[in-house]
C-alpha cells in the first residue's frame, strides 16, 4: 500500500557489496515538518509564559526601566540609594563592566518589583464588588474611580490566561452569615415546627462544631488557590458511582432554523476544523479573556486548560481526569465501528475539504463491527465501578489498550449518527424533543461519555455535542460551541453543492480502523441495560418561546433572569400545588479557579408574589418587583463569594475528614433539588448577525433532572425577542411531566381588567410564560 510505504522514512537491505540504504525524502520531509510544528508550539508557549508572567506590564517596559536608571546614573545620581554600589563590590569585572552589570541587575530587580506591585494593585481592584450592588444609572464616585483604575491597569491587550495571577481568591464567608442566609432560604418551604427545629440545629452547630470546622476551612483557603473547586470536582463529580450519562453530562444543540449543509461528511469536516481552530487559539492563548458582559471585569479562564485531549478515566472508588498536552487525531464512531482520524499531516492542519474526504471514507466503509465493538461505548454510560473493573481487567494491555488509548488521547470524540434530527416534519416540537434525547443519551452506546466532549453529526447535517461535566461548567463549553457554529457558518462556509471549501490531497492515508478483542465477560450488556433503563425514563421537552423576550422584560425594568425564575416558581406552584427548594447555577469565576455557586431562587418574596397572584391580591406588581430585586440580590451574593451551599458543602467535607458527624450538615446536604435550573449565557453575540441573519439562532442546551421527582430546566435568552427552554423530568414519577397545559383563569382575569394597565402587562407576560412551561 502506498500509505504504508510513505510511513517508512528509510529502508535497507544487506547485500554482498554491503548495506543498501534507501531513504524516503517524502517521509523525511513529513517528519521534519512535524518536528518543526512541535518546536513552534514550544516556542509559542515560552513566549506566552513571558507575556502573561509580566502582565500587566510588558517585556519592553524592562528596557524603559534600564534606560531611566542609566540616564539617572549619567547625571551622577544614585537612584538605588547605595544598592548598585553594593552589587558592584561582588562583581569580578572591570570598573566599567561593574557599573553596567550592576545597573542592569538593579533595573531588573526594580522592574520585577514594579510588576509585582502592579499585579497586587490589580488583585486588590478586582476584589472590589460593591459595584455589582449599585442600582443601574446610580454609580457612586468610588466605583467610577475604580473602573478607571481597572481600565488603566488592563490597557495592554491580555492573553487568555493573563489575569489568572491577578484574580482574587474565593473568600470564606462568616459562618453566622451563611447560617442566617440558609434559614432565610428555607423559611417559606417549611412548617413553623420544622423551621423551629432546623433553627435549633443551626444554632447548636454554630455554637459547637461549626467554628472548629470553619478554622480548618480558613486554613485551607490560605493554602489553596480555591477552597471549594478541588473538593467540588472530586466529591460531586469524580466520586459519583452512578452513570454520568443523563445524571451529569449535558448537551448543546445546533441552529434552530438553519442547517448550513445537508451533507453529513461536509458538516463534520467544517465542525471538526472549527473545533481545532478553537483549540489552536486556546493553545496560543489568542482568545480574549471572558468578561462580565458590558464591563472590563475578567473571569477565570482555568477551565479552558482541559477542554481538549481530556478524558475521565473510571476508578473503583473515584474517577480521574486525564489530560494530554496535544493530540493530532480525533476518534470517530460510525455504525458500530471506531476509527482514528489524523487531522494533521506533516505539521499541517488538514483543510475542511480533506477532513470531509476522510469522513466520507468512513461513511462508505462497508465493513461490519467486530465482535463486541458495536455497543462498547455502553461501558461509559453505565455505573462507574463495573466499568473501572472491566477496564482494569480487559483494557490494560494488548490491542484493547492500544485502541482505548486512541479514544482517550484523541482531541475529542466524533459520532456520525445514522438518524436525522432537528425541527422538521409534521411534528416539529416532538422532533425537537427527540433531538434533545439523541444528544443527551443517544442509543446509550454510540457516544463516548467519558470524553471531555463528544460531537454528534446527524445524517441530515444537524450537529450537537454531549459534554462531560467534571472538567468544566456549561458557559465554557457554550463559548466553544458558539465559536464552532459561527466559524462553520460564516467563515468556513460551503460551496454551491454543500461541500466544504478547499483542495484535497488524495494521497492522504485512510482513517485507521481500531481493532478490539472484547470477551463476552466484559459486561457490556449489563452496562447497556442500566443505561437504557435510565434513558427510557427521561422525558425531554424543548420549545422556543417567541411571544416576547429580553427586550420586553427590560422595558418593564425587570431583570430577564429574575423574570424567568419567578415564572418558573409560578409554573411549579400551579403544577404541584406548593413550593420546593430551587437550584439556579451562578458562576464564581470572578475568583481564581472559581466554578459555580447555588442561587436559592425560591425565596419568601417569590412565594409571597405567587400566593398573592393566586388569591388576586393587589398590588401584586409591588410584590413582583420586590421578588425580582430579592432574586437579583441573591445572585449577586452568590457571584461575589457569599453564597450558602458551597460553604456548607466544604464544612461537611471537613467534618468527614475529622470523623465527626453533624446532624445539621447531614440534613442540609440531603435536601433534594426538585427544581434545578440554569441559564446558558450568550457570550459572543458579535459572531452572529441576528439583524441580517435572524435565522441563525442557537437553541442552547439542556441537562437531565437532578431529582427523580423533579425538573431540570435550562434556558437561553437569544436576542431581544426569544427565549429557548429545555425541560426534563422522569416518566417514573407520575407527578412530573415536561409539558403542562396552562390555566385560563388568570388570563381571563387579565382580560376582564381586574388589574392596572402596567400590572396587566406584567401578568400577561407571566401567563404567556406559564402556558409555555
TrEMBL record:
The active site is at residue 469. Pfam families: Carn_acyltransf (PF00755), CPT_N (PF16484). Residues 170-740 form the Choline/carnitine acyltransferase domain. Its main location: mitochondrion. Its EC number is 2.3.1.21. Pathway: Lipid metabolism; fatty acid beta-oxidation. This is carnitine O-palmitoyltransferase. It comes from Pygocentrus nattereri (Red-bellied piranha).
Amino acid at each position: 500500500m502506498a500509505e504504508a510505504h510513505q510511513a517508512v522514512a528509510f529502508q535497507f537491505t544487506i547485500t554482498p557489496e554491503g548495506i543498501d540504504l534507501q531513504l524516503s525524502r517524502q517521509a523525511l520531509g513529513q517528519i521534519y515538518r512535524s518536528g518543526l510544528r512541535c518546536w513552534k508550539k514550544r516556542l509559542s508557549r515560552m513566549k506566552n509564559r513571558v507575556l502573561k508572567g509580566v502582565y500587566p506590564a510588558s517585556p519592553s517596559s524592562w528596557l524603559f526601566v534600564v534606560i531611566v536608571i542609566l540616564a539617572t546614573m549619567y547625571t551622577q545620581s544614585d537612584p538605588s540609594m547605595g544598592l548598585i554600589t553594593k552589587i558592584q563590590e561582588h562583581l569580578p569585572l572591570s570598573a566599567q563592566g561593574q557599573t553596567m552589570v550592576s545597573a542592569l541587575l538593579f533595573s531588573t530587580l526594580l522592574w520585577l518589583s514594579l510588576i509585582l506591585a502592579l499585579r497586587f494593585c490589580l488583585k486588590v481592584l478586582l476584589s472590589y464588588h460593591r459595584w455589582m450592588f449599585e442600582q443601574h444609572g446610580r454609580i457612586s464616585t468610588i466605583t467610577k474611580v475604580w473602573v478607571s483604575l481597572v481600565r488603566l491597569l488592563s490597557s495592554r491587550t491580555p492573553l487568555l490566561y493573563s489575569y489568572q495571577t491577578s484574580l482574587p481568591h474565593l473568600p470564606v464567608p462568616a459562618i453566622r452569615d451563611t447560617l442566617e442566609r440558609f434559614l432565610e432560604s428555607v423559611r417559606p418551604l417549611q412548617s413553623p415546627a420544622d423551621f423551629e427545629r432546623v433553627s435549633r440545629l443551626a444554632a447548636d452547630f454554630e455554637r459547637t462544631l461549626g467554628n472548629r470546622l470553619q478554622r480548618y476551612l480558613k486554613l485551607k483557603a490560605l493554602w489553596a488557590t480555591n477552597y471549594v473547586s478541588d473538593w467540588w470536582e472530586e466529591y460531586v463529580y469524580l466520586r459519583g458511582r452512578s452513570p454520568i450519562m443523563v445524571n451529569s453530562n449535558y448537551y448543546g444543540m445546533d441552529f434552530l432554523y438553519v442547517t448550513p449543509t445537508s451533507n453529513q461528511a461536509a458538516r463534520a469536516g467544517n465542525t471538526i476544523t472549527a473545533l481545532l481552530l478553537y483549540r489552536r487559539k486556546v493553545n496560543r492563548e489568542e482568545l480574549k479573556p471572558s468578561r462580565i458582559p458590558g464591563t472590563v471585569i475578567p473571569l477565570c479562564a482555568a477551565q479552558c486548560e482541559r477542554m481538549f485531549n481530556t478524558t475521565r478515566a473510571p476508578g473503583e472508588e473515584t474517577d480521574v481526569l486525564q489530560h494530554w498536552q496535544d493530540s493530532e487525531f480525533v476518534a470517530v464512531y460510525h455504525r458500530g465501528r471506531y476509527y482514528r482520524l489524523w487531522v494533521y499531516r506533516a505539521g499541517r492542519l488538514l483543510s475542511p475539504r480533506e477532513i470531509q474526504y476522510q469522513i466520507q471514507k468512513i461513511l462508505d466503509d462497508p465493513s461490519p463491527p467486530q465482535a463486541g465493538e458495536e455497543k462498547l461505548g455502553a461501558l461509559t454510560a453505565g455505573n462507574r465501578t463495573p466499568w473501572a473493573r472491566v477496564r482494569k481487567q480487559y483494557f490494560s494491555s494488548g490491542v484493547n489498550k492500544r485502541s482505548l488509548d486512541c479514544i482517550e488521547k484523541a482531541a475529542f470524540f466524533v459520532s456520525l449518527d445514522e438518524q436525522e434530527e432537528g425541527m422538521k416534519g409534521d411534528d416539529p416540537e416532538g422532533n425537537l424533543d427527540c433531538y434533545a434525547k439523541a444528544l443527551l443519551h443517544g442509543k446509550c452506546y454510540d457516544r463516548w461519555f467519558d470524553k471531555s466532549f463528544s460531537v454528534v453529526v446527524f445524517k441530515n447535517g444537524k450537529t450537537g455535542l454531549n459534554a462531560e461535566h467534571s472538567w468544566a461548567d456549561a458557559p465554557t463549553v457554550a463559548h466553544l460551541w458558539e465559536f464552532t457554529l459561527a466559524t462553520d457558518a460564516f467563515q468556513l462556509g460551503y460551496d454551491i453543492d454543500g461541500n466544504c471549501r478547499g483542495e484535497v490531497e488524495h494521497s492522504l492515508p485512510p482513517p485507521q480502523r481500531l481493532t478490539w478483542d472484547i470477551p463476552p465477560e466484559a459486561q457490556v450488556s449489563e452496562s447497556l441495560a442500566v443505561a437504557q433503563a435510565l434513558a427510557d425514563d427521561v422525558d425531554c421537552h424543548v420549545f422556543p418561546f417567541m411571544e416576547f423576550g429580553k427586550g420586553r422584560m427590560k422595558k418593564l425594568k425587570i431583570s430577564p433572569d429574575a423574570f424567568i425564575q419567578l415564572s418558573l416558581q409560578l409554573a411549579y406552584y400551579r403544577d404541584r400545588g406548593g413550593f420546593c427548594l430551587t437550584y439556579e447555577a451562578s458562576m464564581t469565576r470572578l475568583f481564581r479557579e472559581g466554578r459555580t455557586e447555588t442561587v436559592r431562587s425560591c425565596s419568601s418574596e417569590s412565594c409571597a408574589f405567587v400566593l398573592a397572584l393566586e388569591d388576586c391580591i393587589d398590588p401584586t406588581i409591588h410584590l413582583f418587583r420586590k421578588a425580582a430585586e430579592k432574586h437579583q440580590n441573591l445572585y449577586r451574593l452568590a457571584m461575589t463569594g457569599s453564597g450558602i451551599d458551597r460553604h456548607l458543602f466544604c464544612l461537611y467535607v471537613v467534618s468527614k475528614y475529622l470523623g465527626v458527624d453533624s446532624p445539621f450538615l447531614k440534613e442540609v446536604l440531603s435536601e433534594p433539588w426538585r427544581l434545578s435550573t440554569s441559564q446558558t449565557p450568550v457570550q459572543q453575540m458579535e459572531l452572529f448577525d441576528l439583524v441580517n441573519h435572524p435565522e441563525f439562532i442557537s437553541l442552547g442546551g439542556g441537562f437531565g433532572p437532578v431529582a427523580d421527582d423533579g425538573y431540570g430546566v435550562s434556558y437561553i435568552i437569544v436576542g431581544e425577542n426569544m427565549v429557548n427552554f429545555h425541560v426534563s423530568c422522569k416518566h417514573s414519577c407520575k407527578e412530573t411531566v415536561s409539558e403542562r397545559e396552562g390555566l385560563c383563569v388568570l388570563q381571563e382575569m387579565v382580560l376582564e381588567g381586574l388589574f392596572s394597565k402596567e400590572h396587566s402587562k406584567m401578568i400577561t407576560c407571566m401567563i404567556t410564560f406559564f402556558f409555555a412551561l
